[in-house]
Design a protein that fits this description.
There is one protein chain. The strands form two sheets. The chain has a six-stranded antiparallel beta sheet with strand order 1-2-3-10-5-8, with no helix packed on it. Strands 4, 6, 7, 9, 11 and 12 form a six-stranded antiparallel beta sheet that branches. The longest helix has 15 residues. With 255 residues, the chain is α+β, with helices and mostly antiparallel strands. Helix content is 23%, strand content 25%. A hairpin with a 7-residue loop joins strand 6 and strand 7.
Length: 255
């Protein structure tokens, strides 16, 4: 029963956060990359290089295999194509992993920078292969995580240069409660930490499984499953109705 209630709360929260025609507000997206920024990270997404780095017999050999110093630099304001970046109405996140930034091979480390616009909501998700250290470098940010069944929900509001941790595999989320941009830096103890947005994954299951998971007394028709899927916003989303009102963020009146 407790799990079903939590799930229904998550469904209703995401549905409330889902208006798809809300325009971007000022400071929603990351600062624009300056055209004068020097080119870096030319080996990004080069799978042959990544594979060769994996096979290098020694760490020093990996340095030799990356001859340009500038290839040891990752630019979060001008990330390479096909990098692990996500963007939605509430902001964006840019990730450096061993594919988008090959020098990470052998380091057991990766990093993401998140730009949360006004009321930006990094929807509930997990990282299956790493804990996360998350430090706020701009604005204010509310966080929550739940480690596992039976654990309490840990909630905090971070201010400038405060850090929190999300244990490996924990369900967690970040939310900007203000009308100015918030920016965070997240580090991982894996070159491939992985990410799974929970609501999107849940409604990707067979309708019969979804219906069984929420318990008796709450049933779905197949068309309702499709409707819920369509209501789940693209990450990073707008969230929490009170914040949307405070920041004058409203659905397109023509919708």
């Amino acid at each position: 029963m407790h799990a079903s209630c939590l799930l229904l709360t998550l469904i209703s929260t995401l549905a409330a956060a889902a208006p798809q025609n809300i325009p971007y507000k000022e400071n929603t997206t990351p600062p624009s990359a300056n055209s004068s920024r020097p080119p870096v990270n030319s080996l990004a997404n080069n799978l042959a290089v990544v594979q060769s780095l994996f096979l290098a017999p020694k760490a020093v050999d990996r340095i030799t295999m990356i001859p340009q110093d500038s290839d040891f630099v990752f630019d979060f304001l001008n990330p390479p194509p096909n990098s692990s970046a996500t963007a939605g109405l509430g902001g964006s996140a840019v990730g450096a992993d061993r594919v988008s930034f090959p020098p990470l091979v052998g380091t057991n480390a990766a990093m993401t920078v998140g730009f949360l616009g006004p009321c930006g909501f990094n929807t509930p998700h997990t990282h299956p292969r790493s804990a996360e250290l998350n430090i706020l470098i701009e604005g204010r940010m509310s966080t929550q995580f739940v480690l596992e069944n039976g654990a309490r929900t840990v909630s905090n509001t971070l201010i400038l240069l405060q850090m929190t941790t999300f244990p490996l595999g924990s369900l967690h989320t970040e939310f900007n409660p203000d009308c100015e941009r918030a920016t965070f830096v997240a580090s991982f103890a894996s070159e491939d930490a992985g990410v799974q947005q929970e609501a999107q994954a849940f409604f990707g299951l067979d309708p019969s499984v979804v219906e069984a998971a929420v318990g008796n007394g709450f049933t779905f028709e197949g068309k309702e499953i499709a409707r819920f899927r369509s209501l789940i916003p693209k990450n990073i989303a707008h969230g929490v109705e009170a914040c949307l009102k405070k920041c004058n963020i409203a659905p397109d009146p023509s919708n």
